[in-house]
Amino acid sequence: MSLINEHYLKLTKSYLFADVAKKVNAYKATHPKADVINLGIGDVTRPLCPAVVEAMQTAAAEMGTPEGFRGYGPEQGYAFLREAIVKNDYLPRGVHLDASEIFVNDGAKGDTGNIGELVRWDNSIGVTDPTYPVYIESNVMCGRAGTLDGGRWSNVTYLRCTEENNFTPRLPDHRVDLIYLCSPNNPTGTALTKDELRKWVAYAAKNDALIFYDAAYEAFIRDPSLPHSIYEIKGAKKVAVEFRSYSKTAGFTGVRCGYTVVPRELTASSMDGTKRYPLNEMWLRRLSTKSNGTSYISQRAAEAVYSPEGKAQVKETIDRYLDNAATMKAALKRLGLKAYGGDNSPYLWVKIPGEAGSLKFFERMLYGAQVVCTPGAGFGPGGEGYVRLSSFAGKAACEEAMRRIGAWMAR
Ligand SMILES: *Cc1c(COP(=O)(O)O)cnc(C)c1O
User: Fold this and answer.
1) Going by CA atoms, what residue is nearest to atom 12 of ligand 1?
2) Which of 73, 113, 133, 257 is the most buried (most CB within 10 A)?
3) What number does the ligand 1 atom closest to the CA of 107 have?
4) 169-228 residue pLDDT tens
5) pLDDT tens track for 249-297
6) Do residues 139 and 145 lie in contact, with contact meaning Cβ atoms separated by under 8 Å?
7) Ligand 1 centroid to residue 29 C-alpha, Å
8) Closest CA to 351 of 161, 195, 84
9) What distance in angstroms lies between residue 108's CA and the mean position of ligand 1's atoms?
């Protein structure tokens, strides 16, 4: 008899985002003439920049020649890309990494979900709340999150990010073994300062905890005082894995390429506490068993992001999203709404006026303004009371959406 992994059964019930999509589709079906503006998207919309397209075309042409053809590449990624990462993403920030500490992948989501394979199922976890759902759900799948009780997982410590603490999670008052941090944050759009990040690195060092640091939105940081990498904090290489992605940086959500940094100094303990093991070797071991890497064409595309043209073009695209975010934030403030984030992030985290729950508010805004937002409750219990607006729509759509929200609120 084949027996299923019963942990999966715990997941199925509360998938709010599917519910949201269903409600949007139902609205469109019953209002075929309505022009719905989608500010709920967590996907980029602007096309790939010319430098990237050119690199992909060149790589594709190369693959069609006997000399240029490539089969399986190195599991960890081609050296040309890993070296470009070390040189462009880290060295200028004073972070010295070796190419052997970089693991190229087909996007960050997979690795953020899979990294937990390196540690025992019964480690305790701390997750910022609200959060990108992958961190918790991947832990549910292996039983590490425990059981769901009143909207909360029994083995998860929720690190609340609220208006009162500027969406900066406080250190837990008890030990947690694994900590998931995301900065700039999805969904709150806020970023951790160096001082805040220092506290987490110190906590991890003191408690022998691991930090899984998701920096998928680092390219949106414009405030020069904010850290782009956790390794800008002294001692972080001993306690943290970092995830990066070209998805939001360079519009690679459909191309697929990202990378994970597992420093050589990073270790975790054996069960009896007598030995420490390097996670870099374990991650490489896992990768060589389970993956054959990401395509040569995607990796050449990623490399092109670091060319002088690529850097300028990617920055211009992100500036446009940030410009949308600034326009929206100002408009929401004029309407008397409290909007957070958006300065170093494509997301605005908007406080719902009145008592409506976030799913209800989402529905009212859809019917009243024909604007789609993402209900905060989809990001965990701490997301209730808020909705997320994304700046990935076009400029005109963002402006029109603000006009409509204004008119709807005035009614
Ligand atoms: C979009 C996103 C990613 C990137 O996912 P990819 O698999 O690289 O496309 C990672 N983390 C967060 C929080 C995200 O929002």
Assistant:
1) 216
2) 257
3) 8
4) 999 999 999 999 999 999 999 999 999 999 999 999 999 999 999 999 999 999 999 999
5) 999 999 999 999 999 999 999 999 999 999 999 999 999 999 999 999 9
6) yes
7) 30
8) 161
9) 5
**Contact predicate 93/229, CB 8 Å:** yes
4: CB partners within 8 A, 6+ apart: none
Cα(376)–Cα(402) distance, integer angstroms? 19
Q: How far is the CA of 107 from the centre of ligand 1 (A)?
A: 7
Helix 395-410 / helix 358-369 crossing angle, nearest 10 deg = 100
CA of 273 to the centre of ligand 1 (A): 34
- Ligand 1 centroid from CA 253, angstroms: 8
Buried b (16+ CB within 10 A) or exposed e, 310-341: bbebbeebbeebbebbebbbebbeeeebebbb
SS3 content of the chain, % helix, strand, coil (to 5): 45, 15, 40
Give the binding-site residues of ligand 1, using a 6 Å CB cut-off.
42, 107-109, 132, 182, 186, 214, 216, 245, 247-248, 253, 258
CA neighbor of 299 nearest in space, from 83, 47, 67: 83
For residue 370, report the distance from its CA to the centre of ligand 1, in Å: 27
> Among the atoms of ligand 1, which is closest to the Cα of residue 110?
7
Residues recorded for the chain = 411
Nearest atom within ligand 1 for CA of residue 182: 13
Sequence-distant (6+) residues with CB within 8 A of 231 are: 90, 93, 95, 97, 237, 240, 242, 261, 263
User: Hey, whose CA ends up nearest to atom 2 of ligand 1?
Assistant: 216
Q: Identify the residue whose tokens are 């300028």.
A: 312
Counting ligand 1 atoms within 8 A of each CB, the residue from 136, 186, 318 with the most, and so the one to mutate, is 186
CB under 8 Å to 337, separation ≥6 — which residues? 350, 351, 353
Nearest CA to ligand 1 atom 15: 186
- Of the pLDDT bands very low, low, confident and very high (cuts 50, 70, 90), residue 13 is low
Other Cβ atoms less than 10 A from the Cβ of 187: the count is 29
Q: Which atom of ligand 1 is nearest to the CA of 253?
A: 9
Chain CA centroid to CA 66, Å: 39
Checking phi first, is residue 144 left (phi over 0); if not, alpha (psi -120 to 50) or beta? Answer: alpha
Distance of alpha carbon 363 from alpha carbon 346, whole angstroms:
22
